[in-house]
Amino acid sequence: MTSNDIRDRFLNFFKEKQHKIVASAPMVIKDDPTLMFTNAGMNQFKEFFLGINEAKYPRVTDSQKCLRVSGKHNDLEEVGKDTYHHTMFEMLGNWSFGDYFKEEAIQWAWELLTEELKIDKDSLYVSVFEGSNDADKLAMDTEAFELWKAIVPEDRIILGNKKDNFWEMGDQGPCGPCSEIHVDIRSAEEKVKVSGASLVNADHPLVVEIWNLVFMQYNRKADGSLESLPAKHVDTGMGFERLCMVLQGVQSNYDTDVFTPLIREIETITNSKYGKSEDVDIAIRVIADHIRAVSFSIADGQLPSNTGAGYVIRRILRRAIRYGFTFLDTKTPFMYRLVTVLTDTMGKAFPELKEQHQLIENVIKEEEHSFLNTLDQGLVLLDTIVQKTKGQVVDGRKAFELYDTYGFPIDLTALILGEKGLSLDENGFNVAMQEQKDRSRSASEISKEDWIVLTDDTEQEFLGYDLLEAKVKLVKYRKV
Ligand code: ATP
Ligand code: MG
Ligand code: MG
Ligand code: MG
């Protein structure tokens, strides 16, 4: 089954159950001060859950473009290092706005996975909210537990805590318990050694969460207390690429046909090979992932820039360029050349990619040019710093200057120094960074006179040791 078939099968299954198929909302959000990017299928329906607007259709289904790189959901650091978190991904969903509730949601999810899509029942685990002892004193979700017990053996039902099995939109508003479905795709041999039940929610790459069924039954009031909602809602979200991984019988999202055409193209363009070395594999996965995030963002009208959402997109693109530069030896623009393959694989489901193809290519190419120039200049300057260094440790302030004035990524500095047998004075770097932050803070206080607005540092947060962390985490992943 191709990924395009899988998406259609999901949507049509719910269409048959009287759901209206609707389009994905844009991934870039322009009119919500609380959110820069859509990070879940429910975002576009927020007003229905809050009771601000009434839903036109009580049952809806779609595949939503999501981006999880900031705020509450930030998966950026996992991307490339693991095989099942992306920056941009599709979230398949079905909704009930005050219509059906737990019984149908659970039954249909099971029917779709095991009857329609024929996933082996014995590879599935479900989780149910266990209740809480804190101020909320929430009871266990026995309703969901009983419903699942009628379908699956009890030892496949895992009780989960508030973190994993209770969903809240924010400090206030609709919330409720959720039931998740996890799939164990390890070999039979591995399954005998360790029970899959013990690996649910344990970050195992082959025991992954695929679907979250949220049952909105409470409203959290401003004073923190909960009241029962008069109309109860269902909000579900399934990771499309993870579902494809399961149905296509592979062990990584990147081995599905969502990603393989991109990976083949990266191999060709950069003359590299996927599956031979961990560093190169991570770089290839990062690039295959990030080209989607950046292209979809530009298609939605958000170009890379120096502020806000545009800055987030610029950083994602630069992150991919750096991985290419460091591990695939790409010294000229290459990412823009992936846009055609991306459009070929996803353009049917998301026509905006086709419509904006030329713009996407041009913008990415331009960004690549200017960032590669920065890298070139930075390398020359770094060389001068190294030559002037006495001893093994390079002055952190000098490295900060390179980062601050020339935009040269600090992780690259550290990597290059490491290759030369030198090290970076991290403390000096951090002190210089802090001083700069303090300076810009007081500068903004003065210039705004009696209107004190502190500069927002959140987007300029230090993300420097990215590539180095990749190495540390890599070791951890190998042990799994
Ligand atoms: P995880 O625990 O794996 O990080 P989550 O609990 O944060 O997932 P939810 O917020 O419940 O995810 O989102 C619903 C579904 O979306 C998940 O069950 C998963 O299949 C998928 N999903 C979540 N985050 C990602 C991501 N970064 N990349 C791809 N799919 C994702
Ligand atoms: Mg998550
Ligand atoms: Mg989870
Ligand atoms: Mg979840």
TrEMBL record:
Main location: cytoplasm
Protein species of origin: Aggregatimonas sangjinii
Gene Ontology cellular component terms for the protein in this record: cytoplasm
Domain notes: Consists of three domains; the N-terminal catalytic domain, the editing domain and the C-terminal C-Ala domain. The editing domain removes incorrectly charged amino acids, while the C-Ala domain, along with tRNA(Ala), serves as a bridge to cooperatively bring together the editing and aminoacylation centers thus stimulating deacylation of misacylated tRNAs.
Domain named Alanyl-transfer RNA synthetases family profile: residues: 1-480
GO biological process, one term: alanyl-tRNA aminoacylation
Gene: alaS
Taxonomic path: Bacteria, Pseudomonadati, Bacteroidota, Flavobacteriia, Flavobacteriales
Keyword Coiled coil belongs to the record: no
Substrates-to-products reaction catalysed: tRNA(Ala) + L-alanine + ATP = L-alanyl-tRNA(Ala) + AMP + diphosphate
Similarity remark: Belongs to the class-II aminoacyl-tRNA synthetase family.
Required cofactor names: Zn(2+)
EC number: 6.1.1.7
Cofactor binding note of this UniProt entry: Binds 1 zinc ion per subunit.
Keywords tagged on the record: Aminoacyl-tRNA synthetase, ATP-binding, Cytoplasm, Ligase, Metal-binding, Nucleotide-binding, Protein biosynthesis, RNA-binding, tRNA-binding, Zinc
Protein name: Alanine--tRNA ligase
Function noted in UniProt: Catalyzes the attachment of alanine to tRNA(Ala) in a two-step reaction: alanine is first activated by ATP to form Ala-AMP and then transferred to the acceptor end of tRNA(Ala). Also edits incorrectly charged Ser-tRNA(Ala) and Gly-tRNA(Ala) via its editing domain.
Subcellular location as annotated: Cytoplasm
